[in-house]
Amino acid sequence: MMKNLLKVLAIVVLVAVATTTHAQKATKIGHIDFGKVLEQMPGQDTVKVVMEKYVQGLQGELQTMQAELEQKGSDYQKNAATMSSIIKATKEKEITDLQGRIEAFQQSAQQDLQAKQAELIKPFVDKAKQAIKDVAKEGGFSYIMNAVEDILLYSEGGEDVGPLVKKKLGITL
After folding, report:
1. What is the pLDDT of residue 10?
2. DSSP codes, the chain
3. Which of 39, 48, 83, 147 could lock onto 87 through a cystine, CB 3.0 to 4.6 A?
């Protein structure tokens, strides 16, 4: 009876150990240079062209405003001695207001550029993220890190999944 109890106990322990070992799946970690993948995706050249044209348009507007400011400042300096005090004050206010509008335009343009770039790049980011999810599922990865931006602080290697994601996206470089 004691032998049977020991056999049963031994079997229970072995089954428990086997189940625990089976349940503890090895964590597989991969890494990728996400920015590099985005740069290499087809269609990025179009985004660059659109952004360059957008920047040129904003720069053209800014140059026009700055030319107007320079012209008003030059006119003011040439004619300040002959202006009445009310005209002088009005011209000074015009120049100050124009400087304020230029500063506001520059700030707004910077925000607008960031929003435009985010809008243009979003489809590429979404597509790359989906490809990474697909590669992670297909490759049995528990984690895929963007190793370039110091998100991964320590690693004894891991696996670079960049080539697999590029293949999924049809990038051949």
Report:
1. 47
2. -HHHHHHHHHHHHHHHHHHHHHHSPPP-EEEE-HHHHHHHSTTHHHHHHHHHHHHHHHHHHHHHHHHHHHHHHHHHHHHGGGS-HHHHHHHHHHHHHHHHHHHHHHHHHHHHHHHHHHHHHHHHHHHHHHHHHHHHHHHT-SEEEEGGGT-----S--EE-HHHHHHHHT---
3. 83
Residues 105/19, Cβ–Cβ less than 8 Å? no
**Average pLDDT for 82-93:** 93
Task: List the CATH number of the domain containing 43.
Answer: 3.30.910.20
Q: Is the pLDDT of residue 21 over 60?
A: no
Task: Residue 132: give the domain boundaries.
Answer: 2-169
Residue whose C-alpha is closest to residue 144's, from 16, 28, 47:
28
What is the value of pTM for the model shown?
A: 0.65
CA distance 166 to 173: 9
| Sign of the C-alpha dihedral computed for residues 35, 111, 49 and 64 taken in this order | negative
